[in-house]
Amino acid sequence: MIGVMERIAVIIPALNAAAGLQRTLERVQATDVLAIEPVVVDGGSSDPTPELARALGVTLVEAARGRGSQLAAGAAASDAPWLFFLHADTWLDDGWDRLIAGFVGDRNNADSAAVFRLRFDDEASGARRVEWFASRRSRWLGLPYGDQGLVIARTHYDRLGGFKPIPIMEDVDMVRRIGRRRLMTLPCDAVTSPARYRRMGYTPRMLRNLVCLASYYLGVPPRVIVKLYG
Q: What is the gyration radius of the CA atoms in the chain, in angstroms?
């Protein structure tokens, strides 16, 4: 187990994320076993996201819109030895910090990475179906998405080349480079906003995501896929 002085930069890409950002930040700052350094990377919000980040006293970075660019900029803005990439509309269930402490405190994990289980903040049956599929996709294919978070040592992140400045599929691109055998799923939920799924419906959104994933594997450029993603 690591001590309380272990530094972990929590990189949060944000775009018009004021509605959920405060809860996400308050959750990651409520720990007594990790030295958390939140970094909010704004991609040009038109809502009060930047003002909220400043009011909460966290590092604010401005970057070109797109999660790949924003994640890369956030990592570059900190020199913390560990990085935790987390979406702005995702909050962590109880015990997340001690699980991360155990992960980063194990020297065998210096060349590995960790994610969390996906759970939606919704009791709908469709949410359970998507969660079940995400669990199998992560376990069998080693393809967790960005809404499951990502904990990785900076040295390993740098060796892999970091996040690419692409508008979509930056999470899939990264975990493919990490490799399925070097990905661990921590036994704790990353609870994510269901807003995007509710707008389209859980099954249609899941199918669209699968089309985007297949397109990526077929070599369709991310700039084209992002238009399909919606």
A: 16
Report strand pairing: 82-85 vs 150-153.
Answer: antiparallel
Q: Return the amino acid letter for 60.
A: L
pTM over 0.90: yes
What are the phi and psi torsion angles at 13 (to 5°)? -75, 135
Question: Which of 125-147 are b and which e, b meaning 16 or more Cβ less than 10 Å from the residue's Cβ?
Answer: ebbeebbeebbebbeeeebbbbb
Which portions of the chain are predicted below pLDDT 50? 1-4
Report d(CA 41, CA 73) in Å as an integer: 7
Q: Which residues contact 120 (CB under 8 A, 6 or more apart)?
A: 127, 130, 131, 191, 192, 193, 194, 197
Q: Which residue has the tokens 């001690």?
A: 98
Q: Which tokens sit at 52?
A: 């909220």
- Identify the CA nearest to 29 among candidates 40, 16, 19: 40
